[in-house]
């Protein structure tokens, strides 16, 4: 690895130590469905977001809730204390497209129809409100 690449990689790594996030990869659901749930909780306080996800009728809410709980635990681990009520907020949440499995379904007269089984990756960043204002 070249010197410049190593320096930029170390800078990215150093920046990550001050961020609190969780990532869940290869969720077998389409990114479009997951983005509906992500948009629902974007910018919310984490306890309100957990309540909204728990009682949501969408199946995509379960992996988002799991990832949000992991992000909260990561914040608590790095700060060595429990998060207080109303302290943490979702600063960023985004859903990226994962690998797409291509399958074939038999159709009439010897033809085949393509089926795309999509997956996605979800990333959630949490932080305190006063840290966002700085």
Q: Could you explain the architecture of this structure?
A:
With 134 residues, this protein is an alpha+beta fold. The chain contains five helices and five strands, in the order αβαααββββα. The strands form two sheets. The chain has a three-stranded antiparallel beta sheet. It has a two-stranded antiparallel ribbon with strand order 3-4. A hairpin with a 5-residue loop joins β3 and β4 (112-117).
Strand and helix map with partners:
Blueprint: H1 3-16, E1 20-27, H2 31-41, H3 46-54, H4 61-79, E2 88-97, E3 101-106, E4 112-117, E5 120-128, H5 129-133
Antiparallel strand pairs: 1-5, 2-5, 3-4
Helix pairs in contact: 3-4
Fraction in helix: 40-55%
Largest sheet: 3 strands, antiparallel
Number of H- or I-type helical stretches:
5
Structural class: alpha+beta
Whole-angstrom Rg: 19 Å
Report the span from N to C terminus: 35 Å
Query: Count of DSSP E strands?
Result: 5
Mean pLDDT: 93
Shape: flat
Q: Provide the low-confidence segments as ranges.
A: none
| Element-by-element helix/strand order | HEHHHEEEEH
Fraction in beta strands: 25-35%
Strand order of the largest sheet: 1-5-2
Question: Regarding quaternary structure, how should these chains be classified?
Answer: single chain
């Amino acid at each position: 690895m070249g010197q410049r690449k190593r320096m930029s990689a170390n800078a990215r790594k150093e920046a990550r130590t001050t961020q609190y996030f969780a990532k869940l990869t290869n969720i077998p659901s389409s990114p479009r469905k997951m983005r509906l749930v992500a948009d629902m909780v974007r910018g919310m306080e984490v306890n309100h977001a957990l309540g909204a996800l728990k009682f949501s009728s969408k199946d995509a809410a379960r992996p988002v809730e799991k990832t949000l709980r992991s992000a909260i635990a990561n914040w608590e681990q790095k700060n060595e204390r429990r998060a207080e009520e109303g302290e943490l907020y979702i600063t960023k949440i985004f859903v990226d497209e994962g690998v797409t499995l291509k399958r074939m379904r038999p159709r009439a007269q010897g033809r085949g129809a393509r089926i795309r089984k999509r997956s996605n990756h979800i990333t959630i960043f949490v932080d305190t409100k006063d840290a966002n204002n700085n």
